[in-house]
Amino acid sequence: MYKRQKYRPYPGREGQYLKMLLDELHKDGVTVILLIIPDHFGTYRTNINRKRFRMDLQRLSKGMPNVHIMNYNHPKKFPLHNVKFFINGGWSRTNSHLSRTGAKVFNLMFIKDLKKLLKAEQ
User: Fold this and answer.
1) What's the pTM value of the predicted model, to 2 decimals?
2) Residue 4 falls within a domain, yes or no?
3) Which spans in 2-122 are helix H?
4) Residue 7 forms part of a structural domain
5) Which of the chain's ends, N or C, has fewer CB atoms near its CB within 10 Å?
6) What are phi and psi of 91, to 5 degrees?
7) CB neighbours of 95 closer than 8 A, spacing ≥ 6?
8) What tens digit of pLDDT does each residue of 61-75 get?
9) Cβ-Cβ contacts under 8 Å for 20 (sequence gap 6 or more)
């Protein structure tokens, strides 16, 4: 069994700067998408505290209807088990980038969801 990796919570310095950026974009009325991209299932399983990460993003964007969180890093949303969709994906590997095939599938899903989101904002 591989060592599970803990999530280091925000805000931290990066979270403070992200919050300031989100505040400015909110003031300007800019639509913001915080995108959580898919990881290979092996990386997904060893990366514990995913829920805390999502909750921190929600906390940082609270009260900002212009900020949307789109999470594709879940087996029900994206086929994380499909090894042909990833480069170097596997158990305990920190490098889990999408392959060209995975990027094509992801981009089609993202564009479809983005169209829905932007249409709903009008």
Assistant:
1) 0.79
2) no
3) 12-28, 41-46, 50-60, 100-121
4) no
5) C
6) -65, 130
7) 87, 88
8) 999 999 999 999 999
9) none
